[in-house]
Structures are given as structure tokens and as C-alpha cells.
Amino acid sequence: MNLSSPDFSEGGNIPERYTCDGKDVSPTLKIAGIPKEAKSLVLIVDDPDAPGGGVTQLFPVFSREPGKPKTYVQEAIKNHSADVWRLLQREAVVFVCGEASHMAPDVRQAFAWVFQEHTATTAADAQAWLTGLVASHRYLEDIWASAT
């Protein structure tokens, strides 16, 4: 796989327009080499210039890769729980893009699980935390109804 952007060059500075000092808009991202059977991808991005530093990480998840067992976004979130929690503690913003009836609720539940795993709290506490992330625009969804 290859992740690139026509909005800035590899290894170069991100133009101010795409930073919190500019218009704070997202650059165009191009992902090449995705297997045609892929149904889901996870892209976790944390601005390295944000207060406290940051990391950019990509965890590709291909739910229908031939010859391999099905893997889902929510499984990747749980499998990378420590990394996900660390990014969330550093004020990372989550953007979920996918199918509304199964994928989106399962991913929300995975994030709630991560919270419980790292705070030893109740499911109600996890739902309240997730509601707070949504209210503070740190958990964003672009979801759609499936034809099936």
C-alpha cells in the first residue's frame, strides 16, 4: 500500500492551510494498492506538531483479503488497544468511515472496550466517555446505510 497527498511532497512540510494555524482542513489523501476485496481500512493520524507531540500511524485492515481470515476494524482497535489508548490520551481525533448498521456500532463498542480496558470502569462510564468524545468533536463518523 502507498499513502500520499497531492497537497504536499513526501518528507516536506505540511502547508499551513492544513494545520491548526491555518484553515485546519484535512489534505487530500490518496491510498494506492488496496486489495480489491478490502472492505475496511483504519487510518489513525495524530498531528506531530500538536502540543505534546504526536504520531501518525496506519493500521490497514482488509476484511475480505483472499486466502486470509476475515479481519474487522473493531478487532484491529482491540488488538492495538495500547496504541489507540495512547493516541486518545494525546487528544487524537477519531474519524470512522463505513457502514452504519453493523460496522459503526461495532467500532464504537471497540472504543468503549478500550476505555474500559485502560480505566477499569463500567460500560456506562465507557458510554459516557464516548458521548463526551462525540460532543467535543473528537469522535467523528461518516457512515452510510448498506444495501444488504
What does this entry look like structurally?
There is one protein chain. The protein is an alpha+beta fold. The chain has two domains: about 1-35, no CATH class; about 40-145, Rossmann fold. It has helices spanning about 75-80, 80-90, 105-120, 125-135, and strands at about 1-5, 30, 40-45, 55-60, 95-100, 140-145. The strands form three sheets. It has a two-stranded antiparallel sheet with strand order 1-2. Helix 1 (about 75-80) runs parallel beside helix 3 (about 105-120) and helix 3 (about 105-120) packs across helix 4 (about 125-135). The chain starts with a strand and ends with a strand. About 15% of the residues are buried.
Helix-strand layout with pairing:
Blueprint: E1 2-4, E2 30-32, E3 42-45, E4 56-59, H1 73-79, H2 81-89, E5 94-99, H3 103-119, H4 123-135, E6 139-144
Parallel strand pairs: 5-6
Antiparallel strand pairs: 1-2, 3-4
Helix pairs in contact: 1-3, 2-3, 3-4
Helix content: 25-40%
CATH class of the largest domain: Alpha Beta
Number of extended strands: 6
Q: What value does the Rg take, in angstroms?
A: 16 Å
Tell me which CATH architecture of the largest domain applies here: 3-Layer(aba) Sandwich
Q: Could you give the distance between the termini?
A: 28 Å
Poorly predicted segments: none
Instruction: Tell me the overall shape.
Output: globular
Helix-strand makeup class: alpha+beta
**Domains (count):** 2
Major β-sheet profile: 2 strands, antiparallel
Mean pLDDT: 82
